[in-house]
Specification:
- The protein is α+β, with helices and mostly antiparallel strands.
- It is 32% helix and 29% strand.
- The protein is built from three helices and eight strands, in the order ααββββββββα.
- Strand 1 and strand 2 form a beta hairpin.
Length: 214
């Protein structure tokens, strides 16, 4: 009798999960897996967005700084020939000349020593372009940032020209500085396109002394 009772207890203690318990366990595990997958997916998207955002911001900032560097030399005329000036200045297009080699001649040299420099926004190319030799038979157009065949596209470029009292002006002879704003977009995976802008102020160091010659 004792052996029979002992074997009966063993059979009872070895009973497995019921179907309901098994289904509940599977459901709990499924919820955990779905939750973890969502967390990892969101983390991956955030990582991608942050990386693209940082890279785009740096690309926009670098393009603006290149413009600012050359714009500070606009109308540089060390021997006062009167041939170096701001030629075109509107909201999306700036064209100027600079005597880089101090020889008093407007030389048709190419990049990086170009003496006829232009920056303009091309809506067709979705790019900020830098041009050497505009209005000559040998102009060289390069994309400074953006382009239809690149991931980055430029959506806006704005030059806000200021006079010596820091008031906005559209008269070339009154220009002493400018505020540049550049806006671009880049794809960030499932988050779609992200947009970044960069703004800086530039002093036309040579515009004042040469204003009478313009």
């Amino acid at each position: 009798m004792k052996n029979s009772t002992f074997l009966s207890n063993i059979k009872v203690n070895q009973r497995g999960f019921s179907l309901i318990e098994l289904m509940i366990s599977i459901a709990i595990v499924g919820i955990i897996i779905v939750t973890l997958a969502a967390v990892f997916e969101r983390s991956g998207r955030l990582y991608t967005t942050q990386n693209v955002s940082a890279a785009l911001q740096e690309e926009v900032r670098a393009a603006v700084e290149i413009m600012a560097r050359d714009m500070r030399m606009a109308a540089y005329d060390p021997i006062n020939t009167g041939d170096f000036e701001i030629k075109t200045a509107n909201a999306t297009h700036l064209h100027f000349t600079v005597d880089r080699n101090d020889n008093g001649n407007l030389d048709n040299t190419g990049f990086p020593n170009c003496e006829r420099i232009s920056f303009r926004f091309s809506a067709a190319q979705q790019a900020l372009q830098i041009i050497c030799g505009e209005s000559t038979g040998a102009q060289d157009i390069q994309q400074l940032i953006g382009g239809v065949n690149t991931d980055t596209i430029v959506t806006a470029l704005s030059f806000d020209y200021r006079d010596f009292q820091n008031n906005s002006t559209s008269f070339i002879q009154d220009i002493r500085s400018a505020v540049i704003t550049l806006t671009a977009q880049a794809p960030a995976g499932r988050d779609g396109m992200i947009e970044r802008s960069y703004t800086t102020w530039v002093d036309f160091r040579n515009a004042g002394p040469n204003a009478l010659n313009n």
